Amino acid sequence: MTTVAEHRAAVRGLVESHWHPATEVVPLGAALGRVLAEDARTPIDLPPFDNSQMDGYAVRSDAAAGPLRVTGHVAAGDPITSFAGGAVAIMTGAPMPVGADAVVPVEAVGTPGDFAAVGETIELRQPVERGTFVRARGSDLPGGSVLLEAGATLGPAQLGALAASGLSTAPVRARPRVLIVSTGAELAEPGEPLRTGAIYDANAVSLSAAITLAGGIALATGVYSDEPGHLRLALEAAGPVDLVVTSGGVSAGAHEVVRDTLEPLGVRFGSVALQPGGPQGLGAITVAGAATPVLCFPGNPVSSLVSFELFLRPVLRGDRPMLRVPLAASVDSPGTKHQVRRGRLTDAGTVELVGGPGSHLLAAYARSDVLVHLPVGLSRAEAGETVEVWRIDE
Ligand code: AMP
Ligand code: MG
């Protein structure tokens, strides 16, 4: 039996040896969630010039307490001026007059919003330290420095930082195209009437959503049959993709369509010491004329999503945020397998399990916000014992 760590490494090795994403340059408005293909440097200092952090008066830090004549007024967007002494009324974001080196907030010398006019005087109540309320040029990041490293996922702050640097596009990795194939003669398309003995295909939708959230392009197809010929036809009809993910038909039953079809093509099937998600397959097959990695997940909906979380998401998107949290109640685990349970963080700072260990309990999974890891060697954990959990509520 393979360990979870071994299978994770095998999946990573398989995917990374076949998938070499091209670089695409996309407008920032279309780059949300994309992965940066190369380091991004800011071409300009951030901020680009010394400016005021407050509405107030620009002064010199060597000015003594007492009256100061107002010698100018600068607003955000004004050009850089030179300091003519005394105090210069200055608005937030306005360039510091060259020669002034501190800002006194307006409320420290008078009524907020009520600025003295040029020629009037203000009362400096106490001397001010150099640099006070001045946002120095380059203090966030000097021009030419690396702003974001290759591999960074572009979220709101990352996109904002690129825009603040004046960049309008970003070089990002092409998204992996993933063909998702759910198999099983018992499956029916959601929205269709349910005949006796049938269940709805949950995996096509859940795996597609998981792939999309992980930055991939999901192409789903249902093979609602356990005939190897039907699966073969579906794979022959597929266009070029970077990866194939199948669900169902991988264990030891009489009609294991995925195993029966792909094992002769060189895909390896075996057991991982994992619950749920034990039976797994991986290998490479020819799709649209190209060697394409294929991962075969078990069909139970919880098993297939847990398989995605443990094996594929780390390769496509990186690790989930991990926490160590005390259990709200005791739990038993198989001990010889890495068990993954579904859970919810409580206001008390503990984690409570949602539903049992059964791999069909998708509704319970849907009410969960963490995966709870009970590793090999752990057969019981008491309330208050700390366990590793992964946040899945993104
Ligand atoms: P299998 O891995 O094909 O042996 O399937 C294991 C269990 O998962 C069976 O109870 C199947 O009916 C169920 N199952 C398989 N595929 C799906 C699917 N796409 N959606 C929901 N349940 C499924
Ligand atoms: Mg099946």
From TrEMBL:
The keyword Transit peptide does not apply. Keywords: Magnesium, Metal-binding, Molybdenum, Molybdenum cofactor biosynthesis, Transferase. InterPro entries: MoaB/Mog-like_dom_sf, MoaB/Mog_dom, MoeA-like, MoeA_C_domain_IV, MoeA_C_domain_IV_sf, MoeA_linker/N, MoeA_linker/N_sf. The keyword Nuclease does not apply. It is an enzyme of class 2 (transferase). Pathway: Cofactor biosynthesis; molybdopterin biosynthesis. Its cofactor is Mg(2+). CDD domains: MoeA. Its EC number is 2.10.1.1. Residues 179-318 form the MoaB/Mog domain. It comes from the Bacteria. It catalyses: adenylyl-molybdopterin + molybdate = Mo-molybdopterin + AMP + H(+). Belongs to the MoeA family. NCBIfam families: Glp_gephyrin. Catalyzes the insertion of molybdate into adenylated molybdopterin with the concomitant release of AMP. This is Molybdopterin molybdenumtransferase.
